[in-house]
Every structure is written in structure tokens, then in C-alpha cells.
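=== How it folds ===
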Amino acid sequence: MSSVPSLPIVRTVANLRAQVAAWKEAGERVGLVPTMGALHEGHLSLIRLALAHADRVVASLFVNPAQFGPNEDLAAYPRDEAGDAALLAAAGCHLLYAPGVGEMYPQGFATTVMVRGVSEPMDGAARPGHFAGVATVVAKLLLQSGPDLAVFGEKDYQQLQVIRRLVCDLDIPVQIIGGPTARAEDGLALSSRNAYLTPDQRRAAPELNAALQEAAARLRAGEPVAAVETAARARLTAAGFARVDYVEARRPDDLGRLGPGPIEGPARLLAAALLGRARLIDNVPV
């Protein structure tokens, strides 16, 4: 076990399980917050949410190669374990689990977890194989740590719904809690990939949330789904986004497609668009 001041770091499943078992034997509830590092206020808000529901909180730090496509930013993804550990310690986290690739995917690893349905549209279509990588690593993290609860951010809303389906289908005894999206003052959802934005792109980036907020208001006013989605995509293109992967209104629970006319109940508006090197995602409830 290595450490920074006040935050122990474990790198093996055996050491992780030993610490969690000791806490549980003492009657303490354990929360897990999975991350890929490059931490910001959004991650820290999830740590604080976990602390509100658990006595002890474990954060995992693992840049998961299985969820990156062949042309995506695995090699360039920002990494700063020491800085992340200091932020976690200051936020009140009790343990950092930082396994290597060999610990997570040892020699001969041959299993992939796939969640049909909720994982297939939107990011599932735009990033083939992404959610299989997410589902596999999250299943492993939950089984490795055995927490009472795990916290995931609502910014990655489709991912959150995939994980909820996974936990339900596989009878994993853990409570999944969604944490509200943390935003900058201008509305941009906090993300590690925001670091890729140039100053000009950063000024344009809040248009993603602004377009969704406008679209949500139009849907609440009774305008047809298809027309609202088309208008939001056009707004993003006009704002300088190089590619709009999707702007879609979906059912909140299973992310099923809505009809082209006015909505008849709750919905979730989700979007993904490319601005420079940064692929930004966001969502708002309707």
C-alpha cells in the first residue's frame, strides 16, 4: 500500500476487499465513486454525495481502455494521480483504488458484459463498443469492492441508465445513486475533456446547454419533438460545433424513442457534439 497524506491507495483487489471487509465488520456503510481521474468539482460533488449516504467512501481511478474506440483519446486522456489523490483527500474520501490494467484485465481475460436496449442508441451508436467497455469495468468494480452504494453523475445519463439496468439484471446488491450534473457559471457541464477546449471554443461551449434548455422549454410548450430536435441541432451547428452526433428526446427510464409529435409525459433531452478536440455531452430533464 502506498499513500499520500491522509489518503491510503490500494492497487490490488485483495487489498481493496480486505479494507472494505474491515469497515463492514465494524458496521460501517461503504460507498464507491468510480472515476477515470482528471478530477474536477463534478467528481468531488459525487464524493460528497456518497459521504452523505455512507460512513466510508472509496474512489476508484482507472482509465479503462475497453471503453475507448480505435480513434479516441486513450493515449491523450489527462492523467494526474497525485493531484487527484490530493483532491480526494481534501473532499473526505477514505480510500483510493488505483489498479493497473493487468490487475483489471489479467492475462487470459475473456469476458465482456453487454447491456442491450438502453445502451444501443445515441452514444451506443456513435461509439460502438463503448458501453460494453463501461458495463464490463463497472461490473468488475462493483464485484471487486462490494459497496453498499455507488454514485455516478447524471451528466453521463445514458451511462447511468446502463449501469442501473446492469445492476438490476445481474442482481448485484448495491444501491445506485445519480448525482446532479455540476456546471460552470455559464452552464457548461464540467468534464475532464473541457481541458481540450481553446479559449474561443470554451466561449462557444455553453451553447450546448443553452440549446437543450431552449429545446426543453419548447417541448414543455407543446411543440413537436421532431421539430424541436432539428432546431437544436441547427443552433449547435451555427454556434460552431463541427459535428452534432445527436440531439434527442427520450423516455427517462429506458431511453426509448418518443414519437415525432408533442410529448405526453416526462422526457430527457440528450445531446453530444464535437467542438474542436472535445466531444461534449449534456442532458436536461423535461
Q: What stands out?
A: The chain has a mean pLDDT of 96.
